[in-house]
Amino acid sequence: MNFLLFAAGLVGLVLGANLLVRGASKLALSFGISPLVVGLTIVAFGTSAPEVAVSVGAVLDGKTDLAVGNVVGSNIFNVLFILGISALITPLVVNMQLIRQEVPIMLGVSLLLVALGLDGRISFTDAALLFVLIVVYTVFLVVQSRRETQAGKDALSDEVEPVVEGAWDSKLPAQLVLIAAGLAALVVGSDWLVTAAVAFAKQLGVSDLVIGLTIVAAGTSMPEVATSITAAIKGERDIAVGNVVGSNTFNILGCLGLSGLVSGSTGLVLAPSLLAFDMWVMVAVALACLPVFLTGREIARWEGGVFLGYYVAYVAYLILAAQQHDALPYFSNVMLSFVVPLTLVTLVASVLRPRAKAP
Questions:
Q1: Per DSSP, which regions of 112-196 are E strands?
Q2: Count of beta carbons in the 10 Å neighbourhood of residue 41
Q3: CA gap 241, 350 in Å, rounded
Q4: Is 99 exposed, middle or buried (0-12, 13-18, 19+ CB in 10 A)?
Q5: What whole-number distance in Å separates Cα of residue 166 and Cα of residue 170?
């Protein structure tokens, strides 16, 4: 029964996000807002709507571990799993703007979250700062978009369907219905997903935090999964990478910012294990994007395989740690003594090799 409730909640989140993005996009275009701006804001942030719905819903239910775990787990999942799978389908070309601007911003907000959480919680003031930053970031993107080349504008405009005169969704009432239905589906879906996730945690004997970092994080990232894999198959490889990087930035600033504001004066209490391990994994994953992206400005298939392998290892560690399994020390030693150093050496060699060939 809990599995069916979880599946129904996941369907509600994906459907709600699609309806909300479609209705809001059409409404914005009807009011004369350019497709470029819609693509940079509504469409980009719409894929993170499930994370917002689940985290806010979890906070209202008093499940702050689930709320924060969902965001941290989603950011880890987005890079390691989604980019890993997408790169295995086809090597992903990385736009230079992502390397110079978006990845450093993603890394910066990840480090900011760790700094704000060192006292064991995200306070109301911290949440307000995060929310102000997402507003500033959005305005910055809109202003920057006006200076983009026509090719860049065309590429982003392709993400948004134009309003067709006479179509059923070209009318204001239909657009408002789409938005209302999307919001309703997000609210109901998030409630079902959180309820099922908490039941899973009790049945499996693991904490809300672990469930949030794994099952819920993967579930709320389904829109990003669909967007990036579809873009990779279609050859729109910039979108596949940009969708993940932009979503991660929004998850921290927008999702945790809004969740912290909803929590009131108590703020979001952070579990010690989250501060000691998972948030640093999130930072390490963001940092790993730079050398990977710099190797020929693409994510090669073998690098995608490494990302995917590390995600499997991360989930395995969480499961072993939650059960205090006897194999945990052996697993940790193998990862720290062999796998991680070997990966670092390989990445450094990959970065230096193109430079060695340069005249």
A1: 121-122
A2: 19
A3: 20
A4: middle
A5: 6
Q: What is the residue whose two structure tokens read 């295995």?
A: 88
Q: What residues contact residue 149 under an 8 Å CB cut-off, 6+ apart?
A: none
Please choose, from the candidates 78, 194, 67, the residue with its C-alpha nearest in 3D space to the C-alpha of residue 121: 67
Encoded tokens for 336: 């720290």
What are the tens digits of pLDDT across the range 346-357? 656 555 555 434
Structure tokens at 80: 């390691």
Euclidean distance between CA atoms 211 and 201, whole angstroms: 6
Beta bridge partners of 92: 299
Q: What is the helix, strand, coil percentage profile of the chain, to 5? A: 85, 0, 15
Does position 308 have pLDDT exceeding 70, yes or no?
A: yes
Structure tokens at 104: 């450093």
Sketch the domain layout of the chain as residue ranges.
2-357
Q: Compute and round to an integer the Cα radius of gyration of the chain.
A: 20
pLDDT tens across 18-32, in order? Answer: 787 777 777 777 766
For domain 2-357, the CATH architecture is Up-down Bundle (1.20)
* pTM greater than the 0.85 cutoff: no
**For position 358, what pLDDT does the model report?**
37
Q: How many whole angstroms separate alpha carbon 12 and alpha carbon 188?
A: 7
Q: What is the rounded CA–CA span in Å between residue 28 and residue 77?
A: 31
Pull the structure tokens for residue 140: 């910055």
Q: How far apart are the C-alpha atoms of 240 and 285, rounded to whole Å?
A: 17
In this structure, what token pair is assigned to residue 330? 């052996």
Residues 6 or more apart whose Cβ sits within 8 Å of residue 316? 331
